[in-house]
Amino acid sequence: MEKKLKIVVGNCPQNHKCPAVKVCPVGALSQNGFEAPQIDYDKCIACGKCSKTCPKKALVLS
């Protein structure tokens, strides 16, 4: 079964630049201002680096 990255918006404080955006090796995450990040599923390789970086567990690989 293939894993897919999901954003739990309720866990995202949306008050800072998301540290996970910079960690993505393929540029699949983007952020508009301080909003919750957006996922480009065409680029996402489900590596899990962003979900390990997020301190609030707003990015979940399941």
Detail the topology: elements first, then pairings.
Elements: E1 5-7, H1 19-23, E2 29-30, E3 38-39, H2 49-53, E4 59-61
Antiparallel strand pairs: 1-4, 2-3
Structural account:
The protein is an alpha+beta fold and 62 residues long. It has one domain (5-61): Alpha-Beta Plaits (2-Layer Sandwich), CATH 3.30.70. Helix content is 16%, strand content 16%. It is built from two helices and four strands, in the order E-H-E-E-H-E. The protein has helices spanning 19-23, 49-53; strands spanning 5-7, 29-30, 38-39, 59-61. The strands form two sheets. It has a two-stranded antiparallel ribbon with strand order 1-4. The model has no long low-confidence stretch (mean pLDDT 96).
Q: Would you identify the CATH architecture? A: 2-Layer Sandwich
For the record, the CATH class is Alpha Beta
* Strand portion: 15-25%
Q: Could you give the count of β-strands?
A: 4
Q: In terms of structural class, how would the helical and strand content be classed?
A: alpha+beta
Please report the distance between the alpha carbons of the first and last residues: 10 Å
Q: Encode the helix/strand succession as letters.
A: EHEEHE
